[in-house]
């Protein structure tokens, strides 16, 4: 093969490689959907720039400690301490059978959560967690709530032990969380590891409830349809790549 042909081939391969890398980088941009995801029915719940589609629990807007920062929904602990209003951030829409994917990262000591199937009625329920189960968001190292293994990052909060399945990334790095609900079948994953798998309303589920703090909460997890809520627990936390598909 001639030197000219070799050079041309090498240049072509390099160009293809650069193009492929560029395309992969574009496909991986936060808060976007690939063509494949769109075809599969995924929808973005956060556009990376605004709080459209969300409101603070019991309010019509999102003004206050929830802020959009660098392509993420950030609960700003310092802003709340300075007097900004807080509250859980709730999706405008409700969902029954769905798969939710979220990326989150925590600051040192952060405690927060992703609540689902929550009822959006503050006049009846003072907090979203009174009706919706929670996937825990936690700094397992420094958070005060790290002693109970049912409260570790990724756990189905206070219901399923995550001692052997909770493997969050170090503080400041993004974690991938997944919540799937289909005909009562619930599955949680953190960074690709299943942290909980149970059928809502089953004998196993009822026993989990009976052994938890929710045992005497009459409307906890009773509805098969509800809203997604990002918890204000007073700590810095960031969420992005929030996407959902109906099942």
UniProtKB/TrEMBL annotation:
Pfam families named in the record: 3keto-disac_hyd
GO molecular function: hydrolase activity
Top-rank lineage group of the source organism: Bacteria
Domain 3-keto-alpha-glucoside-1,2-lyase/3-keto-2-hydroxy-glucal hydratase: start-end pairs: 41-245
Name of the protein described by the UniProt record: 3-keto-alpha-glucoside-1,2-lyase/3-keto-2-hydroxy-glucal hydratase domain-containing protein
Species of the source: Niabella ginsenosidivorans
